[in-house]
Design a protein that fits this description.
eight-stranded parallel sheet; single chain; three-stranded antiparallel sheet; 347 residues; alpha/beta
């Protein structure tokens, strides 16, 4: 049975979760079209997540996916690193008020409980791995389980605990890297290399992510050994996406040669490696990029939140996290449906 059949999809397209940018309306549009729409829910409070799942169930009777970030209780509750002096100075210089929250992130255990109490068709996980027992419990509720991997060993780990599929995320991908093993950082693999090496060590069904912007790229990853394409950056500039106008305009400007298309893997926004468009913040504070200099994720993410919110309020693209993959030059201003139709036309 193919993954298309397992997930009950018409087309081999998954709209990437992208926490902070996806909406139930975007996910439902993709699902109703015959792809797999998804919500990036790693930063969503459990009660809001319950409400969003209910909304999605009212908007589509097709499969959809909820994505969570795997964090330990220690990670999500602890501030044990001081705010960097340069960030404090930035807040002072720009008269930005900040007060750190009680905890840097939502409780993963509480979010997972939502998926137990309000089951969804597909659940995917990033930043870590869950237990075989948790996989089995989700599957007993009718939920298909998908892991995320940046390295073949991570994909094999998901296969070993019984996941239904793994999304292999190449170095080209925008946003946060989903892997957790040191090997995925020391020698990050391009998508086609990652697919090939993963196919050599496990036969779990693969979903490919990273730089996929058109139907030709979907066909290329299928020829390489993946069954479905998970596409993120291309959806960011469509009408149903929830990003702010400044962020959207920066992406479109890159595609129209009005700003550089250069992207960079950086820890400066969150403490965890993520790919986004190069902007003034990444240039100005590049000297602090070393992991040794920075608080870890999610602590730094909670610390830079006030800068990002202020930039968003002031239509300032230079101090927002402009997450985007290496295919950003190919984004278009179009409706979500137009993008989907364009993708499947080439298949």
């Amino acid at each position: 049975m193919t993954l298309l059949d397992t997930l009950n999809l018409t087309y081999p397209i998954i709209q990437a979760p992208m926490a902070g940018t996806t909406t139930p309306e975007l996910a439902a549009t993709v699902s109703n079209f015959g792809g797999l729409g998804s919500l990036g829910s790693g930063m969503t409070a459990p009660n809001v997540l319950t409400s969003q799942i209910d909304t999605l169930k009212s908007l589509t009777d097709r499969p959809f996916m909820i994505n969570l970030m795997v964090l330990s209780e220690q990670d999500s509750t602890t501030f044990d690193t001081a705010m960097p002096a340069w960030l404090s100075q930035y807040y002072q210089d720009n008269n930005i008020e900040f007060a750190l929250p009680e905890r840097p992130a939502q409780s993963f255990a509480d979010q997972l409980q939502v998926l137990y109490d309000n089951p969804v068709p597909v659940a995917s996980f990033t930043f870590g791995i869950i237990s075989a027992e948790q996989v089995q419990h989700l599957q007993s509720l009718g939920t298909r389980v998908i892991g995320t991997a940046n390295h073949p060993l991570e994909a094999k780990a998901w296969a070993d605990i019984g996941a239904d599929a793994v999304c292999v995320q190449g170095v080209e991908a925008g946003g946060h890297r989903g892997g957790w093993l040191p090997q995925s950082e020391s020698d990050p693999l391009g998508l086609l290399t990652l697919i090939g090496q993963t196919r050599a060590c496990t036969d779990i069904p693969l979903i490919a992510a990273g730089g996929i912007m058109n139907g030709q790229a979907i066909k290329a990853i299928q020829a390489a050994g993946a069954e479905l394409a998970q596409i993120g950056t291309a959806f960011l500039t469509t009408d149903k996406c929830g990003i702010n106008d400044t962020y959207k305009q920066a992406l479109l400007d890159a595609s129209r040669s009005k700003r550089s298309v250069e992207t960079r893997l950086t820890r400066l926004f969150s403490g965890k490696l993520a790919r986004g468009l190069l902007n003034d913040y990444l240039r100005d504070f590049a000297q602090f990029e070393s992991a040794k200099e920075l608080p870890p994720y999610p602590q730094l993410n909670a610390m830079t939140k006030f800068m990002r919110a202020n930039a968003s309020k002031n239509s300032d693209a230079e101090h927002q996290s402009l997450w985007a993959g290496q295919g950003v030059a190919l984004v278009k201003q179009e409706s979500t449906l137009e993008l989907l139709e364009r993708l499947v036309k080439a298949l």
